[in-house]
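Please predict the structure of the following assembly.
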Amino acid sequence: MAFNLKCAVGASVFWPPADRVVSTGYKPAITEKDLFKSIGKVKEVEGVELFYPYDFKDVKTIRIVLNEIGMKVCAVGAGIFSEPKWQYGSVTSYDEKIRKEAMDICKESINAAAELGAKIFTFWPAHDGYDYYFQTDYKRKWYLIVESLRELAAINKEINIGIEYKAKEPRTHQIISSAAKALLISEETEMDNVGVIMDIGHSFICHENPAEEAVYLFNKNRLFHLHQNDNYADWDFDMMPASVHFWENIELFYWLYKLNYNGWINFDICPFREDAVKASELSIKNIKKIVNFVKKIDSSLYKKAIDNNNALINQEYIWDLLFKN
Amino acid sequence: MAFNLKCAVGASVFWPPADRVVSTGYKPAITEKDLFKSIGKVKEVEGVELFYPYDFKDVKTIRIVLNEIGMKVCAVGAGIFSEPKWQYGSVTSYDEKIRKEAMDICKESINAAAELGAKIFTFWPAHDGYDYYFQTDYKRKWYLIVESLRELAAINKEINIGIEYKAKEPRTHQIISSAAKALLISEETEMDNVGVIMDIGHSFICHENPAEEAVYLFNKNRLFHLHQNDNYADWDFDMMPASVHFWENIELFYWLYKLNYNGWINFDICPFREDAVKASELSIKNIKKIVNFVKKIDSSLYKKAIDNNNALINQEYIWDLLFKN
Amino acid sequence: MAFNLKCAVGASVFWPPADRVVSTGYKPAITEKDLFKSIGKVKEVEGVELFYPYDFKDVKTIRIVLNEIGMKVCAVGAGIFSEPKWQYGSVTSYDEKIRKEAMDICKESINAAAELGAKIFTFWPAHDGYDYYFQTDYKRKWYLIVESLRELAAINKEINIGIEYKAKEPRTHQIISSAAKALLISEETEMDNVGVIMDIGHSFICHENPAEEAVYLFNKNRLFHLHQNDNYADWDFDMMPASVHFWENIELFYWLYKLNYNGWINFDICPFREDAVKASELSIKNIKKIVNFVKKIDSSLYKKAIDNNNALINQEYIWDLLFKN
Amino acid sequence: MAFNLKCAVGASVFWPPADRVVSTGYKPAITEKDLFKSIGKVKEVEGVELFYPYDFKDVKTIRIVLNEIGMKVCAVGAGIFSEPKWQYGSVTSYDEKIRKEAMDICKESINAAAELGAKIFTFWPAHDGYDYYFQTDYKRKWYLIVESLRELAAINKEINIGIEYKAKEPRTHQIISSAAKALLISEETEMDNVGVIMDIGHSFICHENPAEEAVYLFNKNRLFHLHQNDNYADWDFDMMPASVHFWENIELFYWLYKLNYNGWINFDICPFREDAVKASELSIKNIKKIVNFVKKIDSSLYKKAIDNNNALINQEYIWDLLFKN
């Protein structure tokens, strides 16, 4: 089965963005109804990624809304981060009540995913980490995260539990900080349906080369889902994909194409100062250019160069191809 | 005149902190009255840094409030960042109406500083920068910032205009990103009362060694004010000072002490998950330990080592002193 | 069994250091004999880490030399990096001749380790990586490294194969770049005697918190050996340990102490401009201060703080303890 | 006068590269004669940058060599870094003998530049910095560097003294670490012929956006010369230009073109594992593609976008232009 760009957007892209400086938001408030109307306008998008209960409260209602705009659901994530109660962690909280509440939301999200026809549950343990040195029992945190994932994976083996790793924000340090750690932890659960969501922006933040990481995650059958956005490798600014990292995206999509990655790509940007519909459309349009471009690469030429360790051949070949395409 | 730790806190430390993830805030809302009551409780603090009109609306009222808690004002800053109207810049906005509004708030802040007995106007041009490549006329932005500073400096030559440089946040790139740029721009105004506020956390973010930067700023008579906080050199997490960077703070305070820096030190942390009063007190307590420590350093020994380029002598001397103090 | 600082030095510390700029070396040439005489002078050191065939050519001769200076061997590493023939990789070379030569040196080093009473084989695949994008078949490289390690591990199950991970230098990217990747690859070999050498400097370069990584490596029984040195988290300058990262080392040794880590610590600095004997001694002296310090930490107090997610308690406790010690 | 790509190569590109790991060099030794023969083979190159006395010992001889290969000299630099005697600094050395020797070599290099028809003296104070905290009298170092530059600038006002700033290597910290510092120091000399050499790779290392820095250096009449190479923003690997940073180079050359920069561009790569002639040619060929590309950008469209702070317009325009060119 051939690689095909299957595009989704996150509902969160369309909520008014805020940050520490403009905490009341860069854009006017929007109703849930208008939000999904906006999503419906984005060209080339087939699916949406939703966080429960932030983007929807019940399956029945959201199903109607999505039908109206003709969207599938690519993934459902657990809303275990936006309220202050999660500030010391969700499924790794030492407060049993908080931990149970987090697990319950995860379970409901997994069930919602199944009911909505999504194959992916997005697990982003935002506050499960630490800020200061001398603040953490690292062993206990690791144990709790593995146990939680094992438990979640058993709920519905048809739903893939995707760990969205991230090095920082909102904590200065998150437990599952890199692709390699996400894979380690996936394997430690001994469950086939625990794997990794690569958010390309998160990958840059922890100084990975996304192509390299994607290849081994894929080969371990644990590359479940992709989020696309970009930044300057320092902070998760969720900019339009490839607006900073150009070659890295070309190499990434070359390998996704060669490996026949057949999952979704969720365009998960945060357009603080830009129109969300336009920015989403431009993001997809630009990545389509990259996908079309990598399909022109002659794999036998490419392979010959890499089999010879030769850096110059492909540097010349790719540039020549780009500037005459 | 000898170096003395003159401590202030920012009023902003005591407002409920928020970020992109928990935009409604990590702590309950607080009234202005309760906020200043909290500030009044912090031990060892003589002054407060205020942003107009965020922390106070008129001079008369705030003067009463401050008298009640027995606090001086070390600096007044311009509130030109928290509303979405500033998102494309304040004094460098291309929208003349926005630009004028920003300049007006700056002028009112300068006047308020004078009336409240503060010597420093804090100029933090938060949104005056850019996010994407191909988005900016760099020459025009530089010109506008210099012209604005020149104009502000002329309002009241008794008030020092302190540029709080910062590399990023809320924009991915801010115009005045480093100590050297802040000094360049200060000198370009040809006004003696334009200089630099070193926020130690900002200094780490742009990979400076604060001691080194403080020395040349001081020697140019442009080191006007200090903000103290810490981070992991990637993002402005505004943690407690020296909780990450220990030696850097010891070297910084050694030189502040030797140079007889006699300005304020504003403890400008952002205690997302910590009690603001306790975190402020601990910040001051820990920095006092450092100040007491550097006073024990024998300058003639220290000087002998640095005059000989010898790295080992002071590495041994400082460690020995620390572990037997 | 209690934690005890068991100190070694690398023979490489005592060779004249060179870099790209001063490629002929910062110090005069030294004979092998004088080198080991220097090592013999370093106080508090019980062992030495050797690279075969760079530091010794045959077991019999080196045994005599080491007896003379009264040193044990903590680890033997494979010299598969200093000659230009290795520039495209050693055990992952696509040139079968090079690959075999690399494997042979590894095998001889493992045998030498056994004969010399060392428990650790140091595996540092320096050139096994890439420089440019579009230069590498990531899957093939990963496969080759795992296969090589499996083969090496089978030679002598009494010898622990320690992967010294490193993100960069001499390549811009090395395959085994982080602690998590080193552990992943160790586990993939399905051999109990493949594990990790944490070089603390390498850990900083890939933006790890060494304490956090050491804990999970230890809990997986794969923390085989430690190298101590420091840098500014950008490049492997191999400076004296804790000269930059102070708190990080305190937290690291706290956990090594609590976990009863009983391996060696090899002081593996590169004193470009400093006397190698003096710099080694000072490195050990300073780390001893840290070890003595962490032994004073009341674990029940420490634990109570971390069980409550509270950042302030230990920040205050550790500072108080340090400044009255 | 219109912008024209005037290409040079550094002679150092063609010497066998070495680093800390392969200190004997990645390539066989080469004679001076063969080196210049290699340079003569590089297509599209009009000039060469030379370091005295590393690349030539006397003007008369090198003039003959250069005539034979038909090369001009774009710049002459001072060879004050490759011998161990410089390890604590050159013109800022506290050893008067070393300092004088460094100044003498600088003076001879300036004279050689004049005799060879070059307009630029390359000043790269490699070891003038520090490694450890507590090792440096920052004020004294700053003073010495300014005084030295003032003295050198007075020798021949027709020769531009170009400061090649760099944040690190061979020291962990160099005094003139950024474009802004290089400009500050240039202005402090009060000499019009002291200015800045932007090495694009060095610019990335200190996290600058080269376009932004080039614009204000140019507007201050202090952008004297450019070096082209690339890296991953962590270490000066001197890779082929734009092989990592693509958009950054497009924006840089857009502004160089608009500003009519008419200096040289020296392709100053370090091809550790690549053929020097081929890598130089490919570097130039790729940058030519970029130059041709930026000439197609409609400045009135570009300007309209940046005058409106709009990030999307140029992101779309530039991508559309690139993928149909």
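Chain A touches chain D at residues 233, 240, 243-244, 246-247, 273-275, 278-279, 282, 285-286, 289, 293, 309, 311-312, 315-316, 319, 322-325 (CB under 8 Å). The radius of gyration of chain A is 20 Å.
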